[in-house]
Every structure is written in C-alpha cells, then in structure tokens.
C-alpha cells in the first residue's frame, strides 16, 4: 500500500486552479451524497481555536484540522495553520495530505468566484479588494482567472500590504492601484471583496446599485466588516445571499444588522435561479463542504487509478 501523497503549499495550490475549483464546488452542491456535520471548535488556552471539519461523499472523505490564532501576525506566524487529510471513503485509505491554509484560501476565493458568476450584475470590474492579506490575494487571483477582471483597486490598513498586493496584481498583468479610502472607492467598483480581520466595521458607504459584494472576513456573530445600515440598505434594495445554512448563526455582518439570516437564500439555492437585479451582498462564513470539493479535485486521480 502506497503512503499518502504529501502536498506542499505550492503543490496544493497547483492542484486547485480557481475556475476548476469553482466548477467542483457547484458540482458538490448538486450531489445528494455529500454529508457535512457541524464543525467542532475547541478554544485554546492562549485565545486561539482548534477547528475540526469532517465531510464525505460516496467516494471521498476528509477532515480539515486547523488552528486559528488571530494575533499570530505579531509572532511572524500565519493566522491559520493545519492540514486537510483526504481518505478513500470506500476502504478508508489515506490518499493525500493537503496544506490546510492553502486549501482554505483557495476554496474560499473559489466560492466567491462561483457566487459572482451566478449573482453579480456585472463581472467586468473594476474590482475593489479591502484587506490585503491571504484572502485578498486569493480573491485577486480567483477573480482575474475566473472572471477576466483586468482592473483592481486595493485598500488596507497597512499601506505596505496594499502596495505588495498591487505589485502582485501588476505581475499578473492587471492594472492595479492602492486606494486610501475604501468607502470612496465603492462608487467606482461594481465588484467588491472585503477580507479584513473583521474586528470592527471597515466599510460604511452605500455601494453601487450594480455592485456585487463578497464579504468573507467575518465568520462569527461577533465579527463584522460592513456597517449594519449598509447591510439593511442592500436587503431593502437588492439581494442577500449566504454560502450555507451554517451562516444562520455565524454571519456577523447580517446578524448585527438585525436581519433574519434564516430567510436568506444560500448559494445552492441560486444555482438554478436567474441573476437578480440590484446590489448583491454575498456573505461567506466557511463550510467543510468547500474543503471536500477541493479534495475531490485532488483525489480524482487516486480514485480513478484504483477504481
């Protein structure tokens, strides 16, 4: 029996191209064999959390085991660390060990890409990215490769981080610039990604009527990126969507706006609906099913070989 294949961060990224991963996520949402129990979150003594996220379909099973420590940047460490273990669901063999932070970054951006493909009134940009960390970079790459975006604006509390992401965008052949006022930039950008630490509202201005917003920074009820009145405005004038029903108790932006998240359609609900009118606010909180979709892409060669 061969040992499981160990994927470095670079190999994990290469195995998960964004357009193909978005397609894999759409396919997973249509698969009735997918089972995703609630994730387990264990508080750590120093303030971080250890998160266990299992999922399975008829052929592949995974567990993502990661830690999240919000203040790790001050230690020179990434906020998210861990792995995704991929199993053959039929015989229990370990097939692969994927780099957890890379899977998290790429599947989150691919979910936003799929939502934009299905929901965005316009997909040509310019794209505004608020937050120049790992998720900001992943969303930049996903929207460039999956939507064909060519113009990007980057806002961040750290000018150095914003400049670094602008340089990366230019390296990819995009027209990119730093903006110091994210609220003002909303007027020029129909595509918006907020990927901030979500410790307080970073965006307060009203977005365009043709805006698509992917809000990915907040994933607990106590976190938020958008001012509550902005969320209420979009709820009244446009469309709200969430990634899964787990957002009912996790979507801080919407919960703190006093909105009934249980009545908000999920991404799966939108797969077969016509594109909505008006501004769209897509709230993404995370789900082990997205990690399973990534694992299915990687595991296809193992499963096919042994079928």
Automatic annotation (TrEMBL):
GO cellular component terms given for this protein: cytoplasm
Q: Which residues form the signal peptide?
A: none
One Pfam family from the record: OCD_Mu_crystall
From what superkingdom does this record's organism come? Answer: Bacteria
InterPro entries associated with the record: NAD(P)-bd_dom_sf, ODC_Mu_crystall, ODC_N
Please name the PANTHER family in this protein's record: KETIMINE REDUCTASE MU-CRYSTALLIN
Output this protein's name: Putative ornithine cyclodeaminase, mu-crystallin
């Amino acid at each position: 029996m061969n040992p499981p294949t160990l994927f470095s961060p670079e190999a994990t990224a290469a195995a998960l191209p964004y357009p193909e991963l978005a397609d894999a996520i759409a396919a997973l949402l249509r698969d009735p064999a997918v089972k995703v129990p609630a994730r387990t979150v264990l508080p750590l003594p120093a303030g971080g959390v250890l998160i266990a996220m299992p999922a399975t379909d008829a052929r592949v099973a995974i567990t993502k085991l990661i830690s999240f420590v919000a203040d790790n940047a001050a230690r020179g460490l990434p906020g998210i660390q861990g792995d995704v273990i991929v199993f053959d669901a039929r015989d229990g063999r370990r097939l692969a060990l994927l780099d957890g932070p890379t899977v998290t970054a790429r599947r989150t951006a691919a979910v936003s890409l799929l939502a934009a493909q299905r929901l965005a009134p316009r997909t040509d940009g310019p794209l505004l990215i608020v937050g120049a960390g790992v998720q900001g970079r992943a969303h930049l790459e996903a929207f460039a490769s999956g939507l064909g975006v060519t113009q990007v604006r980057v806002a961040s509390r750290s000018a150095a981080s914003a400049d670094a992401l602008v340089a990366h965008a230019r390296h990819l052949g995009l027209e990119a610039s730093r903006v110091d006022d994210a609220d003002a930039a909303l007027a020029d950008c129909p595509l918006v990604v907020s990927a901030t630490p979500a410790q307080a509202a970073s965006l307060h201005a009203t977005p365009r009527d043709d805006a698509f917003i992917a809000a990915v920074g907040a994933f607990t009820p106590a976190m938020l990126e958008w001012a509550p009145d902005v969320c209420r405005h979009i709820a009244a004038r446009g469309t709200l969507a969430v990634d899964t029903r787990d957002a009912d108790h996790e979507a801080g932006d919407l919960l703190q706006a006093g909105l009934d998240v249980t009545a908000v359609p999920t991404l799966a609900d939108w797969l077969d609906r016509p594109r909505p009118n008006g501004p769209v606010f897509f709230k993404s909180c995370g789900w082990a099913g997205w990690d399973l979709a990534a694992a299915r892409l990687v595991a296809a060669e193992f499963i096919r070989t042994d079928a």
